[in-house]
Amino acid sequence: MLTIDPKRSLLLVIDFQSRLMPAIHDGETAVRNARRLIEMAELVDIPCIFTEQNAKGLGPTVTDLPVEKGRLIHKQFFDACRESGFLDHVPADGHIVVVGCESHVCVQQTVLGLLAASRKVYIVRDALGSRRPEDKETAIRRMERHGAEIVTSEMVVFEWLQTAEHPRFRDAIALVK
C-alpha cells in the first residue's frame, strides 16, 4: 500500500514549543496545520506522541496544540529515537506522520533515526517549521532522499479517511475548510 494506513498510523508532533515558535518562519501556519492533524487523529482514533526538547530552556508546547490528547516525551537528544524507550512507543510496522520544529534539527534527526530503525515516515510539509525557509526546504529534500514521503496535511486527512463514506467524513471536511 502506498497510501498512509490509518490502522497503522501514529502522529508524531515534534517540539512546537513556546519560546521557539515566535522565531519560526510562518510558524502560525505550521501550528494551525499540526492542530488540524491532531484533531483529525482524535476523530479517527490515531495515537499521538508529542515531544519537547529541553523544555526548561524552550518552554512547553504552545497552548494552541492540545498535548493532553497524546503521550508527551521530554527529550534532550535532537533525535528523539536516541532517548531511552522512545522507539518502544513507535510501532515497528507503523506509518509515522511527522509534524514539528525545527525541520532541519529535531525533525530531521528524528526522521533519519526513524528511517534507520526501519519505520515508514511521512513528513507533513505544511506542518513543519524552521527559522529560515532555506533550512526547512533543505531538510525536506534530505529526508526525502533518505526515504521519507513528503505529504501535506490535507493529503493525510483524506488518506486517513480512505472513503467519503467514512462516518467522520463531514467532521473531517470541516477541519480542512
Automatic annotation (TrEMBL):
Keywords: Hydrolase
Lineage top rank: taxon: Bacteria
Keyword Hydrolase part of the UniProt annotation: yes
Molecular function, one GO term: hydrolase activity
Short name of any one Pfam family annotated for the protein: Isochorismatase
Xref: Gene3D superfamilies: Isochorismatase-like (3.40.50.850)
Domain annotation Isochorismatase-like: ranges: 9-154
Protein name per its UniProtKB record: Isochorismatase hydrolase
